[in-house]
Every structure is written in structure tokens, then in C-alpha cells.
Amino acid sequence: MSAVHPFDEAIALTGGPTTYQGRITPAYGNMVGPYGGAIGGALLNAVLSHPERQGDPLSITVNYAAPLADAPFDIAVTLVRSNRSTQHWQLLLSQESVGVAISATAITAKRRESWSQTESVAPNVQTAADVPVMPNQGMPAWVSNYEMRMLEGAVTMQPDNASEHSRSRLWVKDTPGRPLDFCSLLAISDCFFPRIFVRKQQMLPAGTITLTTYFHTDAAGLKQQDTAPLLAEAKGQRFYNGFFDQSARLWGTNGELLATSHQLVYFKA
Amino acid sequence: MSAVHPFDEAIALTGGPTTYQGRITPAYGNMVGPYGGAIGGALLNAVLSHPERQGDPLSITVNYAAPLADAPFDIAVTLVRSNRSTQHWQLLLSQESVGVAISATAITAKRRESWSQTESVAPNVQTAADVPVMPNQGMPAWVSNYEMRMLEGAVTMQPDNASEHSRSRLWVKDTPGRPLDFCSLLAISDCFFPRIFVRKQQMLPAGTITLTTYFHTDAAGLKQQDTAPLLAEAKGQRFYNGFFDQSARLWGTNGELLATSHQLVYFKA
């Protein structure tokens, strides 16, 4: 086993601070181009690497404008505005053969202690140890980097199982184990198969167009979670003429809601 | 009554296509600066006004980096990438005395007919006609442009009423009546009072940091809705050290989910 975790290899960057260079490794390949969660991780890594960055990630929006080629990319980072406790970032990822493939914005912030509460409490489910690990044969490469234990809404690829709803629940963590950080939390927020696969129980053309993840934790919360599995839930709200949405929640093992995430997905059905 | 609807006055732009000029009217003023929904409307108006724009809005993310001054602004619009059926846009709103106040990204798309379904069905509630219109005395100016009929989760400003949850439901429409379009649908997706007001039932410092709205409709769906009220629901999922999220759904009178919207909000409590 390499001393560097595969996820760190995938999102590694050089250069900076106005332009960073990177290349998602084949280990995080998807159907077409690399896994969107790893692309998001590389973008967030660029913000976190920037020497003027203050505070922790609060939100990031990643717009997938074109599939990436299996080639190096540039990430141009602009600090649009720096306030006393928040910073606003703009990012563009481009490749020589593709042009601009991704646009993104991110916000970092210094948090202050306040009244706090998880209002969306974690559902009562089987513990991770009691749920078998999902096999990953025949799956795109990126899936092998996660240990997924499906509780509900698995994809069977048997259209007779077509579902009345699109909700999935699973336990998920990096494999090999890796202490949770903002980049991996972002990547995991994109780990759900397209909701149309759950509804139709078949493979169909589908791809994320835009993803927004909100972080509800900080260094202490990440440290507490460490390498334990996250309880993850996703569901779609409307499928309409070629696009559907997905809303997701990621709870830590102690029941704290660590992130919420939303995306809009292209599909053909 | 002026021949031009107040909302159209608020989001009116001149110039273009690389830079548009505008100024939110005092009718859409908020506590500090203009109403975020009207700012979003002006940004989306810039995209829709652009001569190279194709298709309808699919999503928009608006990052509120600084309060706007009561002054004119510039909106710089960049078409980042144009695909066969989608376009990716980047926007920056700036003012002479403020600098960059807003960054945004938007996606427009040509839709194709597909299998479609509203999975998040509208809750069974009283019809709008049976619910009294919320009084707007003492409220910021923008509230007077909407007819709101609260079904649940009203803000009473009486801390003894502090709520166990942050869910609000209401019927909402422009007043005077105005046929729904993408800009007004976006503006309405920001019409909810901060969720911390509902939980604590008191006024506290709070302001939207970033808003993302997904559109699930098209010209035909908007025409069907016309000037009828929307059923709107919002709730928070986690309040943590100075920030909380809000997820919202906006259904048309026929039960179709026209938009879903998410935001992250700064608060002190």
C-alpha cells in the first residue's frame, strides 16, 4: 500500500496560488471522465491550499459544464471578496483539449460559537457492522474507493423492481480508511447513484449538471468522526423533461448532521 | 398604478451584453440593502437578456458577499461554456462604493420531453382563499410586494412561542398580480423569513450567504400557473456555530413542484 491515500493522490495539486495543476487518477474514474466528487475535492483543495484562505469551507457549488479528458487540468482560483469572517471564491477548471470544463464558487468562514441543533435527526437504522458491504464488480472504478453498506434504495438493475420513490440510505466511508476532512466529505456527498436508476432500476444516461454542498461542521467535528462510516441519505423531488434534483444528508456516527448536499442531474428516460 | 409592475421596475437592466446596469428600487428594500430575491431576479434577468442565451433557466447559485448600497450596480456576465443543450454562466455584481457584492453562476438548458413525475407531492393544506393575508406593518419594504397567507411556522416575535421545528408553510404570490416567470419564481424562492426567527420566535441578526434554486418547469408550466398563489414550504436542517441551512419547495396550484431552493444563512443567537 502506498504511503499516500488514493484520495490524496486523486486530488493532489501543484503550483498556485492563481492557477493550480492537477489530474484525477484513474482510480477515481467514472463512466465518462473522472468521478464528480473527486473533481469537487480537487477544486476545494485549491481553495484550501490558497495562502490567503481564512476559515473553513462553508459551501461549494460545482457546475459540471463538460466531461474531463483523462489529462492534466488547470484550476484558476480567484478570491472575489474577503470579509472579516467570510471569503468568497470563484474557480474555473480547464483542460487544453476541452476548454473550460467546470465552474465553481466556494465560501470559507470563521465560525463563532452559537446556539446549535441538528433539526433533521438521523433515522433509526441498522448499525454499519450489521449491513453487508456492497459488491463493486462491474461498477466504475471510483466505487472501489468507498465501502458502501446499502440500507435502502439499492440499484438492482432489474426493471421489475422499479421503485415508487427514489430514497436511498447507506453507510459509507473511504476504503482504505482515511480520517474525514472537508475534501473527502464533499466527495462523499456525491456518492449516490443517479436517482433515476433507483426509480427505474436500470442504467440510463445520466450525469450531474450542478452540485452544491453545505458543510455543518468544523475541525473538531471532523476529528470526532475520524474514519467511522457516515450515514448517508438521498432522494429526488421532481423528475421533469430531462432533469431531476437530488437532496442528500450526511450524518456522523454521533448523529450530528455534518453536511447537506443538493444536485441537479441530466437524464434520458 | 404604474403600467410597469414594481418587480419589473426592481430588476430592470440597461446596457449589456458583457455588462448590464441596474438598481433595485426602494420598494424591494430589506433590513440592510435590497431583498436578496430581487437581487437574484436582476442577475437572472441579465442571463435571460443576453443575446447568446439559449433555453430556459435550470439552476442559479447566488453568493451574497456584501450588502448592496442604495446605488446603481453593474452586472458582468460571462458565458463560460455553451454546449448543444446547456449553457454555463458566471456573473459578478459590483458597485462603485462596495466593490464586488455578489458572485453567481447559472445554467440554462433546452429541455426534451422525458418520463416525468413530482415525487415530493404537495401537502394537503387549506386553500389560499381560506387563509387570511399576513399583515405587513412593521415589515421591511419588500414584504408588501407579496401576498402571504401563513399556514404554519409564522413569526410571532414572542419568544415564549419558541418552536421545536423550523418548518413554515404559506401561500404566496406577487401583489399586484403578475404572471409567474423565472425571475419572479426565483425571487419568491427567497421569501421565507430566516429559520432562526421561527425557532426562537424573535428577531436576531441573520442574512443569506448563498442561495441555490433549481427550476423544475418551463414556459408551459409558468403559463399554467399564471398569477395564482404558490404553495411554499421551508425548513432548516442544522443550526451550527453561526450558520444554518434552509431547504424550500414551491408547488404550483396544480400540485406540480415548480422549484426547489436551498440556502445557507448566517445568524447570531
Q: Which terms would index this structure?
A:
homodimer; about 270 residues; mainly beta; 13-stranded antiparallel beta sheet; 5 helices; about 15% helix; about 40% strand
Topology:
Two copies of one chain form a homodimer.
Chain A: H1 6-11, E1 13-15, E2 19-22, H2 36-49, E3 56-64, E4 73-82, E5 86-95, E6 99-109, E7 117-118, E8 146-152, E9 168-174, H3 182-188, H4 195-200, E10 206-215, H5 219-225, E11 230-235, E12 238-240, E13 243-251, E14 257-267
Antiparallel strand pairs in A: 1-2, 2-4, 3-6, 3-10, 4-5, 5-6, 8-9, 9-11, 10-14, 11-13, 12-13, 13-14
Helix pairs in contact in A: 2-3
Describe the structure.
- 2 copies of one chain form a homodimer.
- With 269 residues, the first copy, chain A, is mostly beta strands.
- Helix content of chain A is 15%, strand content 38%.
- Chain A has helices spanning 6-11, 36-49, 182-188, 195-200, 219-225, and strands at residues 13-15, 19-22, 56-64, 73-82, 86-95, 99-109, 117-118, 146-152, 168-174, 206-215, 230-235, 238-240, 243-251, 257-267.
- In chain A, strands 1, 2, 3, 4, 5, 6, 8, 9, 10, 11, 12, 13 and 14 form a 13-stranded antiparallel beta sheet that branches.
- In chain A, a hairpin with a 3-residue loop joins strand 5 (86-95) and strand 6 (99-109).
- Chain A is globular and about 55 Å long.
- The N and C termini of chain A lie far apart (42 Å).
- The interface between A and B is large, with 63 and 63 residues.
- Strand 7 of chain A pairs antiparallel with strand 12 of chain B.
